[in-house]
Amino acid sequence: METDKLLWLARPAPLYSWPAVREEASTIWHMAWKISLATFCRLSVFTISTAFLGHLGTKELAASALAQSVIGALRIVTWAFSTSMSTLCGQAYGAKNFELVGIWLQMGVVVLTVVSIPLVVAHFYAFVVLQYVTSDVELLEMAQTFASYTALSVVPNAFYVALRSYLRAQQIVTPTAVIDTANVFLSIGANYVFIYGCFGWSGFGFIGSPLASFFCTTVQPLALYLYAFVVCQYHTKTWGGWSWQCVDPARLKQFLALTSTFLIYLALDEWIYNVLTIVAAQLGSLNLAANSILFNIWGLAYGVYLGFSTPLQVRASHALGANDPAKAKQVTLVGFCLGSIATLVVMLVLVVGRGPLMTVFTQDPDLQAILATILPIFGFAVSISGLHVMLSSVLEAMSLALTLVVVSGVGSWLVLLPVSYAWGIASGFGLAGLWWGSVVGEGAKFVMTSVALFWLYDWSEIAARVAAEAAADAMDEQVDLENEALVAVDSMKSPVSAATNASY
């Protein structure tokens, strides 16, 4: 009897028992607050630059906003590679194929380095797009100048993204939290010195902002490498040195196929707001400046969401790589509940604390009046977007990028854009109309993501496929198995189902 009791105590608690849920919630939380802090600090670098530019003048702020509408569109290329690396490294780690984790790191570094070259060149031709946005010659020249100097940050940022994705896929998040926190203080000092100067030097003025960003972006990957690889030796378990397997054609094909699909998804999801920036330009420079501030606030809110969605993606990819669909579902439920609480807190902060928040970005009373009106609507849109981000991270862990493409294509371009234009421009509701359109569009994406995740797919089939791919010693040609995971129900008529099936 005593032996039976000991065996019972040794059994793992049921996944939805309070101890099991509490343990998973604790694991997610310990990752979440560090990732949120790191992301918040990293995005604060852009916010700090915006705040400094806002105090230089409305023209400078509007010019940087126009430049960012193009730069942001290019930045999602790096983001797509980061998503692929997190997914593939996480799946391999869950399958205990530690050598493959290091191979994905090397492949990410090699490919990102190559891809950075055309991205740098593209920065110098931002005016090709911007000339169709504004007829203000001075504003156009300032925006192009900002974009050209920002090109300096592309390569160091690519290295930082690769290292960060590799580490967090193994639940190693402390180094980036420390470095990104320190980088905030470095950014404040760099922006002040590069823009206003010191010790009798007058600084660079407007171009000091992108130069300060370049300085900080260069320090980040160097500091991360010294901290995580040289001092703490976090890489020894999964990377023992250079391997030519990182250029294996089959693995390279898998990596690029997943990344290209993620790129389409992220482009559809993010470029819609670059288009809305162009639409907002029709409302005048004051509304454009207000919209720029809102996007920077969104970036800070997104830092909170990423803090919860990233552990959700990592933990789910580990469970799927281990062929444990039940654990993946538990991770999703616990992570989504925690993330939902975070979105509620963000919305309350935006609504209740909008007064002090506005003064951080501008002292212009006209700008503050616009922001005071829009922030409650904006907070609603941001919160719904946060819920969508949480669930999308699970689809990323499943490598179901094509489904995300369909969801974003329909929700962003067939719902959000026409509704925003109709209410903001055609109906004359202005910036408020644009953001009510965002509420509708983000809501549509959240609903479609929920349907895809909990109705369309068989988690057991997906886990078996992910585990087989992650555990394989030799990578065969990747076959798209999303269609095999679809639940065979003839009555399904959702737009996601129809569009996904039509893609094959």
UniProtKB/TrEMBL annotation:
GO terms for cellular component: membrane
Highest taxon listed in the record's lineage: Eukaryota
Chain segments annotated as transmembrane: 103-126, 146-163, 184-206, 212-234, 255-273, 293-312, 333-355, 367-389, 401-423, 435-457
Molecular function via GO: antiporter activity; xenobiotic transmembrane transporter activity
Keywords: Membrane, Transmembrane, Transmembrane helix
Family matches, as InterPro entries: MATE_fam
Family: Belongs to the multi antimicrobial extrusion (MATE) (TC 2.A.66.1) family.
NCBIfam families (alphabetical): matE (TIGR00797)
Protein's name according to its UniProt entry: Aste57867_11413 protein
Protein species of origin: Aphanomyces stellatus
Taxonomic lineage from the root: Eukaryota, Sar, Stramenopiles, Oomycota, Saprolegniomycetes
Protein's gene: Aste57867_11413
